Amino acid sequence: MSQTLSLDHYRLLGRSGLRVSPLSLGTMTFGEAWGWGADADEARRIFDAYADRGGNFIDTAVNYTNGGSERILGALLKHRRERFVLATKFTMARDPDNINAGGNHRLNLIRSVETSLRQLDTDRIDLLYLHAWDFTTSPEEVMRGLEHLVQSGKVLYLGICNTPAWRVAQLQTLADLRGWSPLVALQIEYSLVERSVEHELLPMARELGLGVLPWSPLGGGILTGKYSRADLSDDNAAEVSTSRKGVIASTGHLNARSLDIADAVGAVAEELGASRSQVALAWTLRNPAVVSPVMGARAAAGRGQLRCAGNRLERRTPGSAGSDQRAGADLSGAFHRPAHGAAAHLRHLQGAVTQLMDASPTDDPSAAMHCLTCNDLSPTTARPINPSRHRAFASPFCTALRPSTSSSSQNTMQHTITRSDQPSPSGSSALTSTAACVRL
Length: 440
Fold this sequence. Notes:
single chain, alpha/beta, TIM Barrel, eight-stranded parallel sheet, five-stranded antiparallel sheet, 13 helices, 15 strands, about 30% helix, disordered C terminus
């Protein structure tokens, strides 16, 4: 059965009782003070496109576009505030002449929250994030200050962004021991071009009950095909340093490796008849820790990314009607958790993205091959898993692609796989075999 993403297929946020949309509207682009944002009219069109489809999760920060983002949102939310879960952040400095205008200390915390309440024209903040750890303020001061705001009713729930896993765990433990309000959300960069968080932050979030909100799930536009190898030229660097592309380049992600990954995303998207954005988002949401990627747009034309959930892809298998016998997938099933549980959810996601990485018109999707380490899929036993796409989509923990120990002079790699539909001699449900993959 094909399923379609809807922004009103709400999900629980961490161990809170809040229900939020599977895509969050990021509003760092609301306001023109930074040189590449949307004006108030364009911001309204973007906001309405999201809200009209049931979206209810809004993300901003006290410093975005020098306060312009919150002021625009305040006007947009004026007569419909109760429909939305409103998240903002504090930490970043707003006054270069004031040494205490940034950081996580209580003075900046209280000032920032009061400023956000004025700019947003609201009486409460539904979710307040610590924007980044300042490596200065004590954990006790931070958590006690946040608890004070919760007790005052100005803040309802707490989250944290861009902070090492050991520090987040320390803060959460402190809150539990003292009976203070816990952290319920973790916002971190996560995409196919930034996967370092899989080592510690994502497992920690699942264990401690934090819902994960990935920012830049499209790699700053890299995964959409927006950039090419021409953008890697040194000749362009001076011209784009203050542009949006300059911001992306400054992260270090605009490199040849990322563009190779973007090419793999494009190939999968073409096979599925989907957009690159759909594939990249579906891959991000396949992680069970992820609740709601944060998506933004600078112009009304970018609203299509927020509507990607509405595009349904048909599944076709050999023997079905029509001349096109290639295996298809319902990509939109990746965007919400089916009622029958997490295991089914993961199967939807696998079918949405990884199952067709190496599909051909004659492949039988029922004969899936699983990488033992990272669950990469190859829908046929007739040929090995494609190493190029495996490198792009596999887990960083994957040790399956490794130098061959064979004495053969061929430049090959070994990929251990299991066939889940055949019993093994030992009676287990999987049969282990080995397929050779050409080294890139």
